[in-house]
Amino acid sequence: MTEHLKSKIMGRDGMRRALTRIAHEILERNGGTEGLAVVGIRRRGAILAERVVRRIEEIEGTKVPLGILDITLYRDDLTSIAVQPVVRSTEIGFDVANKTIVLVDDVLYTGRTVRAALDEIIDFGRPRSIQLAVLVDRGHRELPIRADYVGKNVPTSRHESVEVRVEEMDEVDEVVLMEVED
């Protein structure tokens, strides 16, 4: 299976604007930062969550709690991804009970990653509510999951993939659409 670049969806400035808009929408919907926490799905979702938390702090002057989830052991395809999958740590250093949790991921596709993240968050306690923020929603849901905050909707075919690249891991901030060939 090979991939080649089909188009660039977003660059550094587009990503920054989308995350700033998402931060404003989160604050508007929740009436500020009271009882709010942000949790990113490891790997790129965690980086985007950190950026959203920084934007919220810049806007409100208040730092909200930030957590990071590693959903590896909660995946429904765990046995098919690797014989010994790499499990990283989950870092939630606050009580989730009665908080509004904003779950952050890079791309929303089938909804299975979000389902696994919801299962893991619930294992930490019972939040008041869980909201979902994604940089890109590419469609093709297999589960009844919808994002509350979306940076950009990108209709795709199943022969395409959306890659979010972040400077902290990939040395560039961009979102690209890749054509996948068998």
Automatic annotation (TrEMBL):
A motif (PRPP-binding) lies at residues 101-113. It catalyses: UMP + diphosphate = 5-phospho-alpha-D-ribose 1-diphosphate + uracil. One of its GO terms (biological process) is regulation of DNA-templated transcription. InterPro entries: PRTase-like, PRTase_dom, PyrR, PyrR_bifunctional. Keywords: Glycosyltransferase, Transcription, Transcription regulation, Transferase. GO terms for molecular function: uracil phosphoribosyltransferase activity. Its EC number is 2.4.2.9. Residues 17-156 form the Phosphoribosyltransferase domain. HAMAP family: PyrR. PANTHER family: BIFUNCTIONAL PROTEIN PYRR. Belongs to the purine/pyrimidine phosphoribosyltransferase family. PyrR subfamily. Regulates the transcription of the pyrimidine nucleotide (pyr) operon in response to exogenous pyrimidines. NCBIfam families: PRK05205.1-1, PRK05205.1-4, PRK05205.1-5. This is Bifunctional protein PyrR. It comes from candidate division TA06 bacterium SM23_40. The gene is pyrR.
